[in-house]
Amino acid sequence: MTKLVFITQQVDPRHPALAATVPKIRALAGLVDEVVVLADGAVAGVLPDNCRVHTFRAGYRALRGARFEAALVRELPGLGGGAVVAHMCPIYAVLAAPQPSTPRRSARRSRCPATPRC
């Protein structure tokens, strides 16, 4: 099953600036098994049946970011060989990018034997 996560600001065919997003998502939905849309806002019923929409709108930027990350984390495990598309907002690409893992330091510290060389 091919899955695509599409991240955008709005899914609204009447939006003055972002209305063209809807036909783009529809076209992509015709190429994959499932499209999961993460959007700040969305109009219900404008996307094909193989699309699911999660909105992350919030009154505060920090809460909006937390909701976005929570929705993204829920969808990434089932991504498999699919893809993530960040549409129109570079910050979405930055937030969705894999984070490098930092090497963990051992909690155990080696102790020197009680000799003058230590």
> Which whole number gives the mean pLDDT?
85
- Briefly, what CATH class? Alpha Beta
Query: Rg, please?
Result: 21 Å
Unreliable segments of 5+ consecutive residues: 105-113
Domain unit count? 1
Tell me roughly what share of residues is in helical segments.
25-40%
Spatial strand sequence of the major β-sheet: 3-2-1-4
Number of strands: 4
What does this structure look like?
The protein has 118 residues and is of the alpha/beta class. It has a single domain, classed as Rossmann fold (3-Layer(aba) Sandwich). The chain is 26% helix and 23% strand. It is built from three helices and four strands; from the N terminus they run E-H-E-E-H-E-H. The chain has helices at residues 21-29, 61-75, 90-96, and strands at 3-11, 34-42, 51-55, 83-86. The protein has a four-stranded parallel β-sheet with strand order 3-2-1-4, with helices on both faces. Helix 1 links the parallel strand 1 and strand 2 (34-42). The longest helix has 15 residues, at 61-75. The chain is globular, with a radius of gyration of 21 Å. It starts with a strand and ends in a 22-residue tail after the last helix. Residues 105-113 have low confidence and may be disordered.
